[in-house]
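Two folds, back to back.
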Amino acid sequence: QVQLVESGGGLVQPGGSLRLSCAASRSIFSFNAMGWYRQSPGKERELVAGITWGGNTNYVDSVKGRFAISRDSTSDTVYLQMNSLKPEDTAVYYCNADYSYWGQGTLVTVSE
């Protein structure tokens, strides 16, 4: 059973930064791809950033230049560095592996 545990969410002012972490229960290189999704009330869950086994990354247009996905094989953790946060980034952020496994989510609130 794969477990993904997110952390790092919280309340931040517009323009601020947060770093989300996703700790996997097995080697992150056992997955073909991992990613961060988000869902806000009344909206569908969307892919924010993804990283493949080979290290290729992709981002939704609205976060390009502000967010960065990375990984650490020594701790089997995937990160999402979020800079220049905007109120519209407010959502529950979920970690995903191979489009099959999900974490419990971590809430990010961007507000004054």
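---
second:
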Amino acid sequence: QVQLVESGGGLVLPGGSLTLSCAASGFTLQQYAISWFRQAPGKEREGVSCFSASDASTHYADSVKGRFTISRDAKNTVTLQMNSLKPEDTAVYYCNARLITKTYWGQGTQVTVSS
């Protein structure tokens, strides 16, 4: 069965850190472009970060640049390290894998930044 499963979300204080993981099963992530998106209540889904399969380059939204780091390991998992979290980072975070016409989404994991 082909699927992406996110984990690692939770409640964290402002300034804290979380590490989100996205584990793939049924296919290999190596050839796929991997992205993290997020959607806050009442807002549209937005791109947060992506990892290019072609050259392993990474890209970040301006709102998270310098605080978030995306990486891919050899275990078919992509992580999003999130530091210096702010209340405005509160959202459901989704992992996406894309290869030409194939696109897979995870079910999402909730991140809440609040004191």
